[in-house]
Protein 1
Amino acid sequence: MKILVMNCGSSSLKYQLIDMENESVLAKGLCERIGIEGSVLTHTPAGGDKWKCESPMPTHKEAIQMVMDALVDKDHGVIASTDEISAVGHRVVHGGTAFSASVVVTEEVKAAIKECFDLAPLHNPANLMGIEACEAAMPGKPNVAVFDTAFGMSMEPKAYLYALPYEYYEKYKVRRYGFHGTSHDFVSHEAIKFLGLDPEKAKVIVCHLGNGASVSASIGGKCVDTSMGLTPLEGVIMGTRSGDIDPAIVQFICNHENLSVDEMLNVLNKKSGVLGLTAGLSSDMRDIDEAAEKGDQKAIDALEAYYFRVAKYIGGYVAAMNGVDAICFTAGIGENDKGARKGISAYLGYLGAFIDDEKNNVRGENRIISTDDSKVKIVLLPTNEELAIARDTQKLVK
Ligand code: AMP
């Protein structure tokens, strides 16, 4: 069975065609500048060279047609006909409280995705556009929605309720949802398999540290708590997002800088995080690492603040679960930045969790990076959200 995985942004579309026989990627690519002048498709068949094709893509519909054409192209294609695609799996950012698992898309599902537009105004409209464009381009082919928020749906009220007037929860569903759920779900289950832990009882903490970052705690693969909230702004320090702050800062800065709440939210989402802490140097950890090595004090402080915040979340989650079996690192920083893994793990000695510098000198592969006598396993586990989406899609359409 071949599954097409789609991740649609407002002006972009990422895709992978995965052969589920051996879970191998047959081709992957990206459409950029959809709806903008200069639309371009970059398509990479497995083992082949990148192929760029510039052509107008006024909407996602034309973009998906370009993807279909690329997949069957006589020079760059990987399948003879789109009939070989059994189903399409879509990443959908917000499912509200309606979805605690992936679902085959129906008219009701689309209506529920629409209902969450105000909870994820940048993502959900684009995700729905992608689904509708696939329906139009491949009539009758099943589409599956895989929600970033589904993993967080197993949180109990004590974890998901904000201490706000209850009516906001009742009227507007203001609660904690959590994001990166597909990744947290995938990595926590991979950890259980990789380490041979009890699938029902394993206590696992996953640090998904990419440009966006979040930490989760799960027991037996079910989410107990996760650091992002109503939106992906809450939690740890990120590339450009502040993570947790005193909410009163919003009013304070709005008054002093004469900003609207919307403008302040833009600052918190796009100009904060390590970018803000380094006075605009960079949102990319590689640049911050380099500057810190050269003695840049703001970069040094930004790294320490970043490690400290993640370590505090880990500590909180150990308490929430009354223990932990494994602490996993994943995503761009988690998989590639040994300094970040070491810096965070330096706070975990009280757990009897110790990193092994030699084992930690690794990138992008499943590996235990704690010392042999470490009481808690520290693990590097690359995430694979596309494969997770393809697996869910296969399960639902089989
Ligand atoms: P992601 O959002 O998971 O794609 O992660 C992207 C982020 O990973 C980038 O912004 C970088 O900060 C970080 N990253 C990627 N490679 C490295 C590396 N070798 N060292 C440090 N950080 C890295």
Protein 2
Amino acid sequence: MTSGSPSATSAPGANVRVRFAPSPTGKLHVGSARTALFNFLFARHTKGTYILRIEDTDTKRSNPEFLKDIYASLDFLGIKADEGPIFQSERLPIYKEYAQKLLDAGKAVVEENGGIVFKVPFQKVTFDDMLHGPVTMDSTTFEDLALIKADGLPTYNFACVVDDALMNITHVIRGDDHIANTPKQVVLYEAFGFKPPVFCHIPLIVGADRSRLSKRHGATSVDEYRQVGYLPEAFFNYLALLGWAPGGNREHVPPQEIIELFELEKVRTTAAFFDQKKLDWLNGQYLKQLTVPVLADHIAKRLIEAGILEKQYHRRWFERFVALIHDRIRVLGDIEKEQLFFFQEPPVYDEEAVAKFLKQDGVSARLLLLKERLAPIDPFEATAIEEATRKLMAEQGWEPKQLIHPARVAVSGKSVSPPLFETMAVLGHDRTISRLEEGARRGVAVPS
Ligand code: GLU
């Protein structure tokens, strides 16, 4: 916690209770994740309670796969609920009971189709938004408010009010797109005689063209970013910056410090721009700071999941590999794209690289000569490999590019790889030797 004067909302005893209330009708969107994060940060900062509520009364659109995705994405970000998950679908009798109260009070009526509708009194509805200030709306714009639909299921606005009230939610933090719903909810609070919570509507997230972040802009779900290989703490840090700033122009602020610094009152009301470059930069900062063993854990988990690495893998070898590629990756997914040759036997040979560097006069002979010089090296270490290679080039009067480029293609299958001698050392003696042979074999142009 920062010392200094506590703000009104972080005063001890404020007993903050907030909720994140996703509907499992799609994968967890970046915007929803940011809503979850701001609720979580506010709760952690104020030592309050963060509740996860699943709004699954839309039985047609709700799907257990999406629910799994929501859990996995929140888990990835380290957003853990203090209470819940609470399922609205398990609370149907409660909504019926509360609808009955309004019927009994003559404030609601049963429609022909069996649905229950609240008769909204004509009035000006005002609520105070923590970020937007007072918002006033004329209730004539939403005269009849459905509470329970013909199928017996509650509407969003009704279930939301009943739950927020019964769960003693103190602050409703949600996306700007719900501002128009809030007056409808406020009239329901009044009808029940419930005290409304503090509302806090946070800004939309937009893409480069300033329209709401959607598929057109690229990845929109947390899971897609996880798959690309952003680190959880980098993504957490990045999401926190979407509408909030720690001050002092700081951007790289680790999760624990964000919790200490976060102030809901300081969230901006203007749309938050999803800046892919900033996310990439932040991820790079976090990657750089990881120790080899921690990075190795992250990478091993991915590669095992992808079936690229065996569950029982050689840890010491794997850490040497990770140390070699540590500063060559931007996101974890770069490994599967660029460094797969460490895990394939033989590697996949890139045709362009083969044509350019192997299908050249004399290449096969040069690679075989190199193979002979490297074969006796023991231990098979980068300095010894480099020394033998340079000696051979000097003896033969070869330019480095006449040997180094073909050798790189032979061992990696590609024209770009980590430094050659270290790559060979990590591949090890046997694989390097057999790949030089393979390169020599491919270097012989097939007679037409
Ligand atoms: N289920 C609603 C949504 O996902 C919740 C809105 C709210 O927080 O009240 O948009």
